[in-house]
Write the structure tokens for this entry.
Amino acid sequence: MSGWLDHALVFIVVAASGAYALYAFGPRALRVRVAALFGTAARPAGRCGSCDGCGPRRPPRA
Amino acid sequence: MDDRATPLAADAPAFAEMALADLQPGITARVVGVCSGPHAPIEVAQRLAELGFLPGEIVRVVARGFLSREPIAVRVGTGTFALRRFEADCVRVVPAPGARVII
Amino acid sequence: MNAALDQANGPMVALVGNPNCGKTALFNILTGSRQKVANYAGVTVERKEGPLTTPSGRRIRILDLPGAYSLDPMTPDESVTADVLLGRRDGEARPDFVVCVTDATNLRQNLRLVISVKRLGLPMVVALNMSDLARRKGMSIDAARLAQELGVPIVETVGVRPGGVKPLLEFLDRAGPAAAGPEPAAWRKQTPEEIARDQREVLRILAAAGVEDFAGPTFSDRIDAVVLHPLAGPAILAVVLFLVFQAVFAWAQLPMDLIKGGITTIGGWLATALPASLLKDLLINGVLAGVGSVLVFLPQILILFLFILVLEDAGYLPRAAFLLDRVMGSVGLSGRAFIPLLSSFACAIPGIMATRTIQSPRDRLATIMIAPLMTCSARLPVYALIIGAFIPHELVWGGLELQGLVLFALYVAGVAGAMSVAYVLNRRGRGSRFHALMLELPAYHWPNLRNLAIGLWQRLEIFLTRVGTIIVSLMVILWALSSVPLAPAGAAGPAIQYSIAGRIGAALAVVFAPIGFNWQIAVALVPGLAAREVAVGALGTVYALSATGKDVSGALAPLIARSWSLPTALSLLAWYVFAPQCLSTLATVKRETNSWRYPVIMAGYLFALAYAASFITYRIALAFQ
């Protein structure tokens, strides 16, 4: 693998992870914005590992 | 509140009215009514009534805690509730051995 | 959501009923949702909405509400129900139609609420839920006569079978919710005399409909005679809890080995397939080492949840609350605190939400403050990692697993800590000696296999989703921070020591040195704030990067066993019993108490406790070493 491709791939993966972490743990306003972009409901911050109380876990089917 | 609400049936004249907290396990009794207790405000009595501790209902102590004889598991009608002593003090009952709920 | 959209989604149908009569089970079948159901009162503490399209294509919105004994709320969760029905909730119209759900085996109690709801004047239907159980108990209910006497239509439902809502669906389709309900009747608090009058009406109706039931000992009573026995009861509870922790270690071994083997295979394959590059380092030392070390603990988490699900479906949990009530009362906790605290063993967040079933605000706050001390399932990987690495796999005292025993002790330590904190809070607040209990002990049922399977599947899904999103992304970030800046040419020791993460770790290590944590642990604690089990993944990544040249993916335990002293390991265990290593929990406390004050106090006192506990543990262990 050429050096620049290697670095570019690593950079993309790290940047994507950073963006995701910012989304998951960042301000709620950001999540609402992003959710609106994808047309889904905003989820609470960094949903706990075994959440029982944070709303439907999957979109209820019509 | 009227503590002397008439029991529905006249089957237990031989027994004196007592607090549910003092009822022996396994003995059935008829609820006379609810009242505020020495440590319980009227809201507790209100809630007990909402749970079904109502005049005429049959109650039975299913189990009691160890030593302090608290909490108390009470069957009332077709439900069972765990009460602490100060709550069970709010329910006035008359023992009615052998009584069964028959509607 | 705006009003126009609401209209487009159809009329709102609310499910109302006593606690534990099966509203959420019906909701799940009607809307295809997977809300949590269990056999005790107060599982649902919020309004939940889902769409339904009836067989003929009518669109309806179904609203699931917390159970209520009456429309005069005593607890925050009951207030939600009363407020929605009475139209007192801001920005929300009253429901167009009410499905009053009743437990057919407990009509004596359930019908009073039906009569109250009827007074509100909303169009309604009564669902005789658990009608299969009633029939099996030999109760004959003349539904037509009952409907006639009550003056409202009745449908029979079975909430645990997918086909069990057919009559209700047909009803909603046929009669169809009216477009607009009449104006609400005024509501006024009922006096006990009025409730008694309603009860006489209920008895008259039941007699007319030929419903007979007896207060004589039932199947549940016979079980309770043993399970709630003053001596046998606590012994049974202890044995049950004990078996759970033994099983977590004893049964998980094989699947854990399989997962470990799988990860090692993938690691080996990646190592040979990829040319030496930065990307390879990221994949092996960042992603695989981090994710693999968390993934291994999936079987243990599933086993723990299997037991929790069985116990809660059977109806044993409120009995455990009964047995432990004296302990709870003696430290000034409401008896109703038990169920929220027990939910906190899964995760503190639903536990804190469940405190809405506690009447007194002071009792509720005390319960919220101690909920994070219950050992949540996210701590399990941390505990299991350290126990697996440091506690010998051997049998003691005639057949008890030492590892399971230590795990049990850690859970007990969390509970003991919580009780002590509650005691101090109650003393300082000069709380009343009298805290409400009034907890319903539901009839036992056999656990529903479908329910269990769905519950376990959800755990699996949640865990894997979390590993695949939060943990992967945090591991990649940690890898990046551990890789730049690069080590200077000719540097001794692993490159990570010269990186940003390495420097942060070195700085934090100064703070943590008195409790025996090295810089690797200090680094791992930081991403561990996002979620506790992330710390395990972080340790995996940090150690993978620290180990010079060797492929260590999937073998974190032997590595830390070599590089940590026993006092350090014990100190870290003590830290995790108390430390508030979870931002989501603090965010939930902020939301539930509506103030920053309590999350700040909580974080402060938990950190102080954790540091103190680790310090004492470390020093004692050092002294005995």
